[in-house]
């Protein structure tokens, strides 16, 4: 018999750490934490951070898997909504391919449905596995590896300063202001903020005027040679800026590092950031036919899932759907959550929507829950899904109206790792 319960005892955490190390062997060795440190970290997180919870799956009183659940808040088109997160899903090596992970995710859904949360997210160890479980792709991450001189030399660096742990509240305030303006951003927890300063490898700088910061950057260095200590790369771990002026001050700083930095690694979800950089080539000299120079490496990561379609669309009633007027039937296919496997009639008048108890509509749209989750967040468009045969529309003359209705000008942004 299997049961999922919260980890409470120290011995539970000891066993969970053993499972985590087996599932993610890359966590150990080098500068990574020891098993004892991981156990202490997990127990501290659950005790001190009300948004973090560790759960285990027991089979006949033996722990065979576990996960970490997060209570987040997300900016959904300028409205803060609760969102569930799951991370560190780990299965004992002797119990792989026994549907332990699936049962953990099923409990993840149940846990947040009981809290009246309609939307969840995760970072997949295998995107295809979670796609089959109804998760849709979030925004891509683009990794640039450019020379310092590629960053514009801004007019000044005079407002740049180092931050210490005593300045944590300034980072919190700055991040909160930025997150309030960016669709998809998650609120920062206390443990996230404190971890920035706990890592001895981190440098934290900020643009500060009149005791208020207008942006901050967290970065570290990694060596590029075992025999030449002068060869290093600068890795940007987090970069938040509120104004073009703040961006240029940071850029001037990065530009000035050319004497000791080989290349700068920058991970960003901004699709057109190459307009800002000088030389966007990543140093591989690889050409894509006919003549396209290799620049950013792009990857899929964060995935979204609606776990209560009707509830989530009620959250969306504060958003204006681009002034469109249309009544459509939304038919959702969800093989895991039967309550989502339903039809909803939605009326939009001048962009304002409401759910109707009616069977009168102009057009029907049939879509799987994974694609719907990506669509409503603005990651992908109706037109793109239609051309890829990922959505069925009963009358093609309404394709463009539906495209305009769901269109999102600014795609979601999320820099929270969990």
TrEMBL record:
<feature type="domain" description="N-acetyltransferase">
    <location>
        <begin position="3"/>
        <end position="158"/>
    </location>
</feature>
<dbReference type="InterPro" id="IPR000182">
    <property type="entry name" value="GNAT_dom"/>
</dbReference>
<dbReference type="InterPro" id="IPR036527">
    <property type="entry name" value="SCP2_sterol-bd_dom_sf"/>
</dbReference>
<dbReference type="InterPro" id="IPR025559">
    <property type="entry name" value="Eis_dom"/>
</dbReference>
<dbReference type="InterPro" id="IPR016181">
    <property type="entry name" value="Acyl_CoA_acyltransferase"/>
</dbReference>
<dbReference type="Pfam" id="PF13527">
    <property type="entry name" value="Acetyltransf_9"/>
</dbReference>
<protein>
    <submittedName>
        <fullName>GNAT family N-acetyltransferase</fullName>
    </submittedName>
</protein>
<dbReference type="InterPro" id="IPR041380">
    <property type="entry name" value="Acetyltransf_17"/>
</dbReference>
<dbReference type="Pfam" id="PF17668">
    <property type="entry name" value="Acetyltransf_17"/>
</dbReference>
<dbReference type="Pfam" id="PF13530">
    <property type="entry name" value="SCP2_2"/>
</dbReference>
<dbReference type="InterPro" id="IPR051554">
    <property type="entry name" value="Acetyltransferase_Eis"/>
</dbReference>
């Amino acid at each position: 018999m299997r049961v999922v319960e919260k980890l409470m005892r120290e011995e539970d955490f000891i066993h969970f750490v053993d499972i985590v190390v087996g599932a993610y062997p890359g966590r150990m060795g080098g500068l990574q934490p020891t098993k004892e440190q991981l156990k202490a970290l997990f127990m501290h997180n659950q005790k001190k951070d009300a948004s973090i919870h560790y759960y285990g799956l027991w089979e006949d009183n033996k722990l065979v898997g576990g996960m970490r659940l997060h209570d987040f808040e997300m900016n959904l088109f300028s409205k803060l909504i609760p969102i569930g997160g799951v991370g560190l899903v780990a299965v004992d090596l002797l119990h792989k391919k026994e549907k332990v992970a699936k049962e953990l995710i099923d409990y993840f859904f149940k846990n947040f449905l009981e809290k009246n949360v309609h939307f969840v997210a995760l970072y997949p160890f295998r995107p295809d596995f979670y796609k089959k479980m109804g998760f849709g792709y979030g925004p891509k991450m683009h990794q640039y590896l450019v020379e310092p001189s590629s960053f514009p030399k801004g007019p000044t660096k005079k407002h740049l300063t180092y931050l210490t742990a005593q300045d944590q509240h300034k980072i919190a305030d700055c991040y909160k202001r930025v997150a309030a303006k960016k669709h998809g951003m998650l609120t920062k927890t206390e443990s996230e903020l404190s971890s920035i300063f706990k890592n001895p490898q981190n440098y934290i700088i900020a643009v500060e005027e009149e005791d208020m910061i207008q942006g901050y950057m967290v970065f570290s260095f990694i060596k590029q040679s075992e025999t030449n200590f002068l060869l290093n790369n600068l890795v940007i771990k987090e970069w938040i800026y509120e104004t073009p002026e703040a961006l240029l001050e940071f850029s001037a700083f990065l530009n000035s590092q050319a004497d000791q930095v080989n290349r700068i690694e920058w991970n960003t979800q901004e699709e057109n950031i190459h307009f800002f950089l000088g030389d966007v080539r990543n140093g591989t000299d690889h050409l894509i036919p006919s003549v396209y120079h290799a620049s950013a490496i792009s990857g899929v990561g964060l995935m979204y899932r609606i776990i209560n379609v009707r509830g989530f669309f009620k959250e969306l009633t504060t958003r204006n759907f681009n002034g469109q007027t249309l009544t459509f039937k939304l038919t959702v296919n969800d093989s895991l959550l039967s309550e989502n496997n339903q039809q909803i009639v939605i009326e939009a008048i001048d962009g304002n929507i409401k759910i109707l108890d009616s069977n009168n509509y102009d057009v029907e749209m049939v879509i799987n829950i994974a694609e719907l989750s990506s669509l409503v967040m603005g990651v992908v468009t109706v037109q793109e899904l239609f051309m890829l045969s990922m959505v069925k529309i009963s009358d093609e003359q309404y394709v463009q109206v539906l495209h305009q209705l769901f269109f999102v000008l600014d795609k979601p942004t999320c820099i929270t790792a969990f």
